[in-house]
Amino acid sequence: MQTSTGKPLAVAVALAALLTACTAPAAPPTLAAPAAPAASAAPAAPAGIDQIGAAAGCPRPALQIDAADLRQADCRTARGHYTLVTFTTERGQRDWLELAQMYGGAYLVGERWVVVSTPPLLEGVRAQLGGRIESAHHH
User: What are phi and psi of 93, to 5 degrees?
Assistant: First the structure.
């Protein structure tokens, strides 16, 4: 009986040792891995509608579209009019810009966000949020 009782105990100890050996090395890389992306992800995090609106001097942008892939808001201030758009993916942003630029205009393009307005107004927002200004001519 000792052999049959001893064998399951030995298997359980071996399995526990195997699981500990397999999980012990995995835990430090998992804990260490987020540290590197977190440092690089912080600057790349896209601005939200409220943050962009605040940079434009519009504390409460009027949300026009709240879809799964983008949010669009209207922002009117004493200085002028802005359209604010945020995207869930870079691809969605590229597709939107391709279509929007067919109509012309000036765009401040950031990390998964776009502001549409006049170039002088976009300069003020760019000073606070960064990004690049693109101009398109109506086709």
Answer: -65, -45
Structure confidence by residue, pLDDT tens digits, 3-52: 444 443 332 333 233 222 333 333 333 333 333 333 333 344 578 999 99
Angle, CA 87 vertex, CA 38 and CA 73 arms, to 5°: 120
Taking CA atoms, 122 is separated from 10, 42, 69, 136, in Å, by 71, 23, 24, 14
A 10 A CB-CB count for 27 gives 9
Tokens of 63: 């949300």
Give the pairing of strands 105-110 and 113-117.
antiparallel
Beta bridge partners of 84: 73, 115
Query: CB count, 10 Å around CB of 95?
Result: 14
